[in-house]
Amino acid sequence: MKNFLIVKLSAIGDVIHALPTAYALKEKYPDCHITWVAEPAAAEILKMVPLIDELIIFHKKEFRSLRGFLRNFPSLKRQLKRRRYDVSLDLQGLFKSAAITWVAGAKEKIGTCFMREGSEKISRPIVGANAHNHVIEQYLDVARFLGCRPEKIVFPIEVPEREQDIARRLLAQCGMNAANPYVALVIGASAPNKRWTSEGYAKLSDWLYEQKLIPVMVGGGPVEEQWAREIESLTEVPPVNVVGRTTLPQLAAVLQGAELTVCGDTGPGHLSLALGTKTVMLLGPTNIQRTGPYTQMENAVTISRDCRYCWKRVCPKGLDKECMEDITTEMVTTKIKEIL
To answer: Which helix (H) or strand (E) holds 336?
Structure first.
């Protein structure tokens, strides 16, 4: 039996992109044991993946000081040394993942084509045929190096029935029946210029009601709760608001039950895609060819500026109008009509 160690720590979207690699390993080596090291936020996703045999939580915050490192390193080392790994896959490609990989001491250490911060000194970068393609295929190239021949992209997530029940009750508390068709609106993003406008979401919400579809805002955190209130103030009839009221598994249940999701390039959006929900992804500064909705590329809505896909968190040109403002409500509703 082969023992594999996957090191992919954060963020949620990145961890989801790496899941097909774990599936490919299990497909090729059904009896293998897969251990995954992740940070707490992303770990909630991995707990819904049955083929992950062991999950090691890396609490990065506890290692930021010398005192914290000395206190917490022995425990992490013991966890990593419990098993002798045949191969470690560093899919993060940073100093912190390289350190974890080095401590684990697998017989063979490999990583992706974009290793940085010295991680390429610890793990061998695998530069496959997809080095300039979507990140999902870049990760799969690492599995292909190990003899895997994935024929399809599979995200092996299973949302627990208990979490589905809680999500249905939560929607009921908000005055709606989860059996009625609804559209999930992921209103936030990790960077301001990756987020669509509040005005856009408000107009879309009113249009969805006209189409007999219930708009449901999802997300988490104080900033997104503020955005949700702003969107509500701009609508004729406020959308259902569960922002900040769901755990990640409950959010997954809401997304799984939706007719469709509208989102930016953000973790919950990629979760929606992984769950098989039709997903309209709105893209500005991020490159569709690398992190776009890989299994539903036809459902992406992109801007037409020459400077699109710049990868900047803030517009480097200092323009008065953010690029995501170029996406109109009509562009989104047209795409929704095509899908539904």
So the answer is: helix 329-339
Q: Are 5 and 25 in contact (CB under 8 A)?
A: no
Q: Are residues 177 and 66 in the same domain?
A: no
Domain hosting 201: range is 161-339
231-245 per-position pLDDT tens digit: 999 999 999 999 999
The DSSP secondary structure of 189-245, one letter per residue, reads: -SSGGGSPPHHHHHHHHHHHHHTT-EEEEE--SHHHHHHHHHHHHHSSSPPEE-TTS
* Domain annotation covers residue 153: no
The three-class DSSP label of residue 141 is helix
Count how many domains the chain has. 2
**DSSP assignment of 44-55:** HHHTT-TT--EE
Domain identity same for 122 and 198: no
pTM: 0.91
Report yes or no on 211 lying in a domain.
yes
**298-323 confidence digits (pLDDT tens):** 999 887 666 556 555 565 555 545 66
